[in-house]
Amino acid sequence: MPDRLSALDASFLYLEDAVTPMHVGGVAVFERPRDGFDYEQLLCLVRQRLGYLPRYRQRVLPVPGRIARPVWVDDVDFDLNYHVRRSALPSPGSDEQLFDLVAQLMARPMDHGRPLWEAYFVEALAGDRVALVTKTHQAVVDGIGTVELGQLILDTAPQPCEPYDHADTWAPRRMPSNAQLVLDAVSDTVQRPGELVENIRTAAGDAAAAADKLSGTVGGLVSALRTITRPAPSGPLNRPVSGGRVFAAVRTRLENYRWIRAQLGGTVNDIVLTVLTGALREWLLSRGESLHASATLRALVPMAVLEPDTVEFFTAGLVNNQVEAHLLDLPVGEPNPVLRLRHISHAMRVYTDSSRSVAARAMLKVGGFAPATMHSLAARAAGSFSGRIFNLVITNSPGPQQPLYAGMARLAEMYPVIPLARNQALAIGVTSYHGNVYFGLNGDRKAVSDVGNLAAMVEDSLDELKGTHW
Q: Does residue 289 register a pLDDT over 90?
C-alpha cells in the first residue's frame, strides 16, 4: 500500500501559500568547542542520524488529477548539502543580526518537490559561537514515526562524529509511475468512497473544504471549541499577514519562576503565561490601545496529553499526536500582576488537573530535546483552528536541565519559532533548558514590526511580578 499523507498532513499542504508557510523553526546557539565545530562536522552528525528519520529523505508526490491525497516517496535525487546549508554573519555577528536572518529564512516557503526540511549552519557569531536554524514542515513531524531533527542530533554528553564508522547505506526506492499512483488511488477509493468527493473539491481549489477537512481531522482538539465558542476580541494581532517576518528572543532565569511559584503556588507554566500577559498589556498600551479592566486577549495554548492508561514514562514515539489545544483568555486589562496570575492559575487548573495532562517531569524523560518535537506538534494543533476564535498562539514545552551537545559543541540557547496563521500576526514559543527560560517571538513584519519592544517588555513583566509584595 502507498504511504499516503493523512488528511491532516495533506491539509497543511493545501492551505499553505506564499505568505503563510507552514513550517516550524528552531534557533539553537552553540558554544564552539576548543577543537572547533564546523559545517562538515554538522553534516557528519546529521548524516549519522538520518537513518532514524526516513521521512527526512522522502518528498511529497501528488496523485494525477488529485483524485487522492499525495503520497510519501523516497527522493531519488536526495542531496544532503541542499538541506543542510551554511551561512555567516558579518563578524562579529550580534544576536540581533542572527534574529534578522532567522526572520528572513522563516519567511521563505520550502520547495515541495524536495523533502520538507532545511537547516542552516550560521557562523561568525560573537563570542566564538555558531547557530543552527532549522525549518520543518508541519506535514513532516507527526510525533509517531517522525520527530523534529533538533531532538535527534542532541546528546547528553559530547560525542565526536566519526564519518567512516557510520557508512550511509540508504538506497532510495524507485518512484511510482503515474499509472501506479492512479491505480493505488482507485483501490483506496473503493475502500473509502467518501474521500473521493473531498479530494475532487480540493482539486477544484475549494480552500474552505480543505479547512473544514483539517478541523475535522484532529481528534480531541474540539475540546477547545467547547470551552469558548465566541469570537476572539478584536485588536492589532488579528490582521492579514504579509510575506515578511520579524523575530525577537528573550532569555530569562528559571529560578525566578520557581521563586514566584514558591510564594503563591501555581505552576511555572502559569507564571510564564502571566509574564506574557503583562508584556502584552504594556505593549498594547504603548501602541495607544485603550484597555478596560475586563479586556482580554485569547491565546491558543496547546498542551501535551496522554491517554489515562498510558504509563508516565513515555518516549517520543508514544506521543502519538496527543496535543490538545486549549483556549485561554489572558487578562491584559488587569493592572495588578498578582491578580493576573491568580486568574490564569484558576483558568489553567481545569487542564492541569486532568488525568490526561502530561506533567513536566514526564516530559523531561523524553529522549533528546523533546521541546523541538512538542513545539511542532503544538503548531499542528494550532493550525487546525479558525483564526476567528483566538488572537495568538503560545506554546510552552519544558526541556532538560542538564547540558546537551551536538557532536562536541554544547548547546547554549534554544529558541522556538512558531509559524503564523493567515490572520494571526504573532506566535510565541517558550522552552526551558539548563536553568533558563527561552522565548521566541515570531511576528508579521507589517502588523507587529515592533516585536523587539514586546520582547523587552517580557523581562519587565517578569521583574514586576517578582518584585510584587505577596
A: yes
User: Strands (DSSP E) along 94-164, which ranges?
Assistant: 117-125, 129-137
223, 324 contact by CB (below 8 A): yes
Convert the pLDDT of each residue in 268-286 to its tens digit: 999 999 999 999 999 999 9
DSSP state at residue 96:
H
Report all structural domains of the chain as residue ranges with CATH numbers, in order of start: 223-401+415-466 (3.30.559.30)
Give the whole-angstrom CA distance, residue 3 versus residue 23: 21
Q: Is pLDDT larger for residue 333 or for residue 349? A: 333
β-pairing, 84-93 vs 117-125, is: parallel
Q: Is the pLDDT of residue 356 over 60?
A: no
Contact of 175 with 76, CB cutoff 8 Å: yes
pTM (2 d.p.)? 0.86
> How far apart (Å, rounded) are the C-alpha atoms in residues 469 and 165?
59
Angle, nearest 10°, between helix axes 337-352 and 254-264? Answer: 90
Per residue in 389-402, pLDDT (tens digit) is 889 999 888 888 89
Contacts of 140 (CB under 8 A, 6+ apart): 55, 56, 115, 116, 117, 146
